[in-house]
Amino acid sequence: xxxxxxxxxxxxxxxxxxxxxxxxxxxxxxxxxxxxxxxxxxxxxxxxxxxxxxxxxxxxxxxxxxxxxxxxxxxxxxxxxxxxxxxxxxxxxxxxxxxxxxxxxxxxxxxxxxxxxxxxxxxxxxxxxxxxxxxxxxxxxxxxxxxxxxxxxxxxxxxxxxxxxxxxxxxxxxxxxxxxxxxxxxxxxxxxxxxxxxxxxxxxxxxxxxxxxxxxxxxxxxxxxxxxxxxxxxxxxxxxxxxxxxxxxxxxxxxxxxxxxxxxxxxxxxxxxxxxxxxxxxxxxxxxxxxxxxxxxxxxxxxxxxx
Length: 307
Known about the structure:
This protein is an all-alpha fold and 307 residues long. Helices cover 76% and strands 0% of the residues.
């Protein structure tokens, strides 16, 4: 017997606590999503700050300056990442240049202490040396680089040798691009032929090599210019001879025509004109053959046709 205070068992819907439990769990899950979103946003901002710090560190800014802007933790992360990353091509060459400057500075001090004379070369020294070589080329095209260096610095053989053995390619190119050098008459044929070939001369390992390449090109293009001028002169003479031959042929033709007229018994100008006209010659050709005015030939023919 079922007690009266308890409800009978039925196949009704599930108890209400299951729905309540689901609704209670759902807010906790949504809170976790918002938490993850905030973490990701903070990480994105931190990465952006580190990347900006890396960019400014590579631009030469000091870490102490950047710590105020980005925070020391982000600057430290940027330094760690730079240390672990492979250097770029620009960074490699910049580091090499810095090391070279330090080594050269130290070498200069030690050489001065040892009493070794070091020659300093200016842009004017390079330009003076190259222009001297070009002036000598104008005098005699078989000039040597050693002779040009000796003439450029007659009182300082050591400086002449030092500038000849220079490896400062920036100075080479700057010297060759200077207006005074490019306007030199010895280089007119080289620059007219190819500026690319001219600029390639600056790629010599030493300055004396660059000078040698340039003198060789000047010598080559000078010979080419002489040959071209000779060919042009021959062509002009050929045209003159052809014109003379044409005149001679015309004179011979006129002589033959006059002789033919004499053989035919045409002695007067009128007879000659009429004979040539009957032979099929035009009025203008008759005037040229007989050396007469065109109007005179025309009148003679018209009178003959009317009469």
